[in-house]
Please model this.
Amino acid sequence: MTTLTRRYRFSASHRLHAAGFTEEENRELYGKCNNPYGHGHNYTLEVSVRGEVDGKTGQLARPAVLDELVGREVLAELDHRSLNEEIAAFSGGGEGMVPTTENLAAWIEQTLQAGWRTAFPDGKPELCAVRVLETKRNSFELRT
Amino acid sequence: MLITRRVEFAASHVCADPALSAEENRALFGPAANPHGHGHNYVLEVTLEGQTDPRTGMVYDLKRLKQILNEEIVTPMDHRFLNREVAPFQQVIPTAENIAAEIWRRLAAHFQGPGPRLSNVRLYETEDFYVDYAERTAGA
Model:
């Protein structure tokens, strides 16, 4: 089996604060990520696809097609944004998800799946993993 | 237990299908279709899976793995023009997908017997683009 992975970068800010906990519990739970003014990261995103290598082209996917999809659906939405303030899934006055990188990876996976057939009309190749590195030391991977 | 060794080689290639026109190749492969070729510092990560030998405390002799990687991959491919100098890329387009599959074929023969099996080949063409290749082997 062959999988192909492209790596992208975006910068965004967030604040980890869950509506179901008190101020003190949030400080305890999220530590400095609970700073009320927020903070930011240079995120790295790895998107992996799997499928058959085309016998004629020797390619599993055209990287430019994947780049266009990820650029349009994910990077244009997230880059240089405040996740809590500007991304609907993470905002809404406590209704949204906490923008942990776990939840961010899930949002990216759902967003890519929703737009997948605009780039790959027959559904091939298929998305097989989304990995988000919050820093060089923390990474979160969702395999589909 | 999985063990991984990383090696690097620098090589040039052209990604183009001789059956297509220059314009079609440019549309399909982008700048990689430049007929004069271009190069990469490829990074190869080879992963073996096996049991730790209780006597040596090792899954496999890393010196031996390094030697196999040098003989099969680095020496034949480093500082070469893949399309002209390395089989089967005179006939097969040397995309990262096809190079990874060829690396698997070259290495698999060394890991057929007892001991660890070849688990994965990961080939980075650049820091931002890599492919993984693995074939299921008997008993895996």
